[in-house]
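Researcher: I need the complex structure. Ligand is NAP. Inputs:
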Amino acid sequence: MSAFDLTGKTAIVTGANTGLGQAIAEALATAGADIVAVGRTPPVDTRFAVEALGRRFHDISADLSTMEPIGRIVAETVQHFGGIDILVNNAGIIRRNDAVDFTEDDWDTVMDVNLKTTFFLTQAVGRRMIEQGRGGKIVNIASMLSYQGGIRVPSYAASKSGLAGITKALANEWAAKGINVNAIAPGYFSTNNTTALRADEDRSRDILARIPAGRWGTPADIGGAAVFLSSSAADYVHGTLLAVDGGWLGR
Ligand code: NAP
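Model: Output:
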């Protein structure tokens, strides 16, 4: 089990107050990591769960639709825990509308959170990891729409396809520095992100019918992949998208 042990590591997880980010923070803490949670909403339950596991927890209030918080996320993490070993870029949003009615705001807001801030936060953390000289792990939360077009979510599909590109581009640059940049591509999970989809009876039924596992994912299904890609077990894994999708892509 030692290859998966994260004892003594510091992990930044964005959007860790709920859904997949919360499950990822808890899984990393279970494997031994201290957690820095970054987001707009106070991560009360996540703090409780991480501290109950005996790990240290720090939360940074930040709106990731702007570049403003990037510098202080790195500075505060270093100040509290002395360095950064793992970054999980999980915060993300979705806007649903027909392409012909899609607004500039629906485009910009999604691209800013899912792609622009994600890239520049990763750049800032990558600089710090290079300076530290002990490598690091970056895990981007991609999507089935890193491979597919989806329905009525063009900016989301563009952002998640772009995130797949950034994952590979940064892996190419940083692999030789001992920094692993990879992504998890979740299938269809029951979280706030999919509330509208699950409320639409036709779409919900069609989606379920295509999932070989026969059920939607639950946040707990994502933790193992996050621990793996954050650990030394993944030291030779670079630029990959690991689908955690109940078999959706294989269908
Ligand atoms: P979620 O419950 O809606 O969580 C999204 C998280 O992102 C929340 O913590 C949210 O914080 C945070 N966030 C959004 N905008 C932010 C901003 N401007 N600044 C800071 N934090 C912000 O949905 P989820 O499913 O867990 O989503 C997590 C990631 O998984 C996203 O990147 C999503 O695209 C991806 N994903 C989800 C699915 C799925 O089926 N659920 C599938 C594929 C990929 P607030 O509470 O403050 O809004």
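Model: Summary of the prediction. The chain has one domain: 2-243.
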